[in-house]
Structures are given as structure tokens and as C-alpha cells.
Amino acid sequence: MKFSERISSLNQYLVMGCERIIALSLLLAVICFFLATLRMALGLDWSSLTTLHEIGQRVLLMTIALELVRTLIWHELSSIVNLLSFVVARRVLEPQTAFWEVPLGVLAFAVLMATRRYLLNGSSNDGESEE
Fold first, then answer.
1. Residue 129 pLDDT more than 90?
2. Is 120 exposed, middle or buried (0-12, 13-18, 19+ CB in 10 A)?
3. Distances (CA, A) of 40 to 50, 51, 54, 66, 84
4. What residue ranges do the domains of the chain occupy?
């Protein structure tokens, strides 16, 4: 084995190890955030619409973080498309979103779904049947 191949192999091993550490840290942060959300949810007024919005935003944030963990571990293109879909959905559902951002968000979501349907048709392992 050549010296440059050993360096490349070592570099790949170190990067993979760092990605796993980051993924584990992020997973622990999601668990802590989930517990904090549960504790916060107990004290909220469930008759208010802002409560529903706050819980929805927190759930989407946890979903984005879990998709990021999945992307760091498995490096699949379909998980990146899923991650971007959740980011767009969270951005569009914010109440402070400007009017012109909503059609752009819908367009971005449509492009992501078209990408999933036409470019990732054979490579998705999610177990979902399209037809």
C-alpha cells in the first residue's frame, strides 16, 4: 500500500469517526430537546392556537435534526432530499413568513418532490411504493 493511499484511508476513517461523533452529539441534543418540549408542553394553554404552532415547530425541528443524523450516518441522496423537504416545510409554516416566500416554498417543495420521483426512483430504500 502506497503512502498516499494510507493517508487517504486514514483521512476517510477520521472523517467518518468525526461524523459519527457529531451524529451522536446531535442525537443526544434531540433527546434533551424532546424532554424539554414535553416539560414545556405540560404548562401550555392547549386552547390557544400559538400552542399548536409552537409544538409543530418543535416537532419539525426535531425531525430535521433526526434527518441530519441519518444523513451523517448513511450518506444517502434520498435523506438529503427529505432533510431539505422538512427545512422548506418548517420555513413555510412560520407565521412571520412573507407573502412572496410562500409560493417560493411551494415551488421548492415541488422541485424536491419531482427530484425524489424522477431522479431517485430506483435508489430510494424507504420502502414506499410510488404507484
1. no
2. middle
3. 13, 10, 10, 20, 27
4. 3-119
